[in-house]
């Protein structure tokens, strides 16, 4: 299946201060402070300074990794294994149709402590041109598919495919209890640039508070996977990596 851009809008600079001092090792699990922050973020949908008021940065010094367009039977298990290896938790923006096809992978994502995000039913990049009822049905259908896999799953984020936000999309996401989630670092990995290019973009544009956009689904993610082998230990040394 060929899906197009999550990151078709430009990411730009972060607007957050310079990189944090190097840390000696990746945290084996979220620190008490990080857990406190996660608890503080649970609850009402948040606003941010991204398009249409979506969240573009974490709001703390911590950096968040996000993975879009899965779950993929080929790549999601491999990326989950890498995240386990480096003790990193991330946020997975899931397509409803894929959740329906691969419920076991949704269960594995949740079981391994990652955060869920709704990424529409079928990666509709033109939701901003559709009716309120249609937008809402795409969102609720996706949440229902996720919850068929994991009853009572917490789905606190929504990410619009293509980053094509509108006020109406944001309103509907919020009314369903989901924070609209954008990003601030985009290596355009869905376009399959060489791993070294993904690595360079992420290293050179990540700052404190960055939300990094990557993909575990939507096609051949071998370049993303190769880049993550370098980026996970690098980012883990340099930043607190949090799930949202
Ligand atoms: Zn996407």
How would you describe this protein?
By secondary structure, the protein is an alpha/beta fold. The chain has one domain: Glycoside hydrolase/deacetylase (TIM Barrel, Alpha-Beta Barrel). The protein has eight helices and seven strands, in the order αβαβααβαβαβαβαβ. Strands 1, 2, 3, 4, 5, 6 and 7 form a seven-stranded parallel β-sheet that branches. Helix 5 links the parallel strand 3 and strand 4. Helix 2 packs parallel to helix 8. It is globular, with a radius of gyration of 16 Å. The two termini are 28 Å apart. About 14% of the residues have low confidence. The site of zinc ion has 6 residues, from strand 1. Zinc ion binds next to strand 1. GO terms for molecular function: hydrolase activity, acting on carbon-nitrogen (but not peptide) bonds. InterPro entries: Glyco_hydro/deAcase_b/a-brl (IPR011330), NODB_dom (IPR002509), Polysacc_deacetylase_ArnD (IPR050248). Pfam families: Polysacc_deac_1. This is NodB homology domain-containing protein. One of its GO terms (biological process) is carbohydrate metabolic process.
